[in-house]
Amino acid sequence: TFKGLKLYQPNTDDFITYTKKQGDVNSPSSDIIICMYEDTKGRLWVGTPNGLNQIAEDNNNNNVLSFKSF
Question: How far apart are alpha carbons 70 and 21 in whole angstroms?
Fold first, then answer.
């Protein structure tokens, strides 16, 4: 996708879109998502042209994801 990562919310039948935000280290490193992978520990990884991101859920709010860049 070229417009960020979309998270489906079945309770509301809607999507939350995560896009790159300048200066926000918890946003994806790019709006272009090339691939996704779940490793054996259940961690989700997102590949972008600007690098690899690991997705982590906010323990206080299941609708919020943070992205750690590598």
Answer: 17
**Residues 43, 19, 56, CA angle at the centre, nearest 5°?**
20
H or E element in which residue 15 lies:
strand 14-18
In sequence order, the β-bridge partners of residue 51 are 48
Cα 43 from Cα 1, distance rounded (Å): 20
- Which token pair is 55? 């997705």
Q: For 18-47, how does the pLDDT look when each residue is reduced to its tens digit (9 = 90+)?
A: 999 999 988 999 999 999 999 999 889 999
The answer to whether 28 and 20 are in contact (CB under 8 A) is yes
> Rounded to 5 degrees, what are φ and ψ at 8?
-80, 135
Cα–Cα distance for residue pair 1/61, rounded to 1 Å: 25
